[in-house]
Design brief:
7-stranded mixed sheet; single chain; 17% strand; 4-stranded mixed sheet; alpha/beta
Amino acid sequence: MRKNLLSVVISVFNGEKELEDCLKSASFADEIIVVNNSSTDKTEEIARRYTDKIFTRPNSPMLNVNKNFGFSKATGEWILNLDADERVTLELQKEIKEKIGNWKLEIGNSRPSGYWIPRKNIIFGKWIKHSGWYPDRQLRLIRRGKGKFPEEHVHEAIKVEGEVGYLKNHIMHNNYESISQFLYKLATIYGPNEAEQLIKKGYSFDPRDAIRFPVKEFLSRFFAREGYRDGFHGLILSVLMAFYHFIVFSYIWEKHKFKQINDEVILAETEKEIVQSSKDFFFWFSKERTKFIKNPVSKIFHQILRKVKS
């Protein structure tokens, strides 16, 4: 009997709208394992069209617990971990088969135990190429028994024993499709977990961070990581991510029993932060605008635009 070379592990909760396309893209594997996180829709019915290796588990808030469980049930020499809203492109299928089929010495004198895979995030109907969403490399292809999630943070990467390599082709990620979906995950899953992680790492409560957290995130997304190059999508996503960090701070405040601060202190410190934030915004606008002025084509365009406006 031929030994399984590749197992795909998918952990899913109520994924009837997206699971089938994921399973189709994973059908090149020798084995598909689906961990059904107590779904109440047609998830299991859809999964059974592609595999009989379906395991039902409680829907744990720590999502990676059930992913690790799926790894333990895999029999392939290699494991590819996918979420239900992800797709393996044909190019990536070919690259994975070639990589694990040949499995030559690639890094020093040791064989890789895992591979980082770039991911294309489709958010609100558009591939987001900037704003910190690309190349969004994910450590998803691992040798069985050589890696697992630490189960500490919902956004953590798999920890691998040994060297890791990099693949060129992409996983397609049909990420957020609506504002309500984004806000739901932000407020109920990611926010509380992020707050707990910051507290565990020794974060000291500072009321000024109610402004600092979101401002820093917006500047990072929209300017430093050139979110403006994603157009209006980039602006909205930068604002939403800034709001996410405000939510994280709010959960930390809740952990501190909604600590009260003197109103005079709040007014004075808020003024200082707003003034500083204004300086930061002015700096970044000036810096990024210079890029367009240095570009001859953009310079001509802006000159024409000024004449039209005048």
